[in-house]
Amino acid sequence: xxxxxxxxxxxxxxxxxxxxxxxxxxxxxxxxxxxxxxxxxxxxxxxxxxxxxxxxxxxxxxxxxxxxxxxxxxxxxxxxxxxxxxxxxxxxxxxxxxxxxxxxxxxxxxxxxxxxxxxxxxxxxxxxxxxxxxxxxxxxxxxxxxxxxxxxxxxxxxxxxxxxxxxxxxxxxxxxxxxxxxxxxxxxxxxxxxx
Length: 195
Description:
- It contains 8 helices and no strands.
- The protein has helices spanning 19-22, 27-34, 37-40, 47-72, 78-104, 115-122, 130-151, 158-182.
- Helix 2 (27-34) packs across helix 8 and helix 4 runs antiparallel to helix 7 (130-151).
- The relative contact order is 0.18.
């Protein structure tokens, strides 16, 4: 990460996906995300799995839109813009994996909303600075990490929990970089995420 990304002044996306509201992904849904067609064909696939995956997909669409709005705002300095675009790319990969999973389970992937809808839902009219954009992204990333961590205990197979752990790790990495860029102190207590 460029050093100037760290030198900034310190001036819900995922609430629908938190542990209590996400529910439990089935073995079949995680099999699709893990790239295991045999697991995906399992008898545990259900309409509920597709619905849960579509909630996750909707939130990935939201993250992509938030980073797009930040990139187009003209408020991000070049090194910060580069990192934001990189993080957006991670969310696009998450989106693509979820679309594949939903399709393989026989569902219809939820479509993204208009940028105007995302702007209203995210409160983008209040964004006036680079720090505002980073703070919004930080909040969204924390919610995403907590959501993916929240479903991990539901799995008996390590491979299923590993998929969620990998997604959560991306989100925590993003949150950490954003927190550092904002000049926030590291959390004083352990077990910061998933609670």
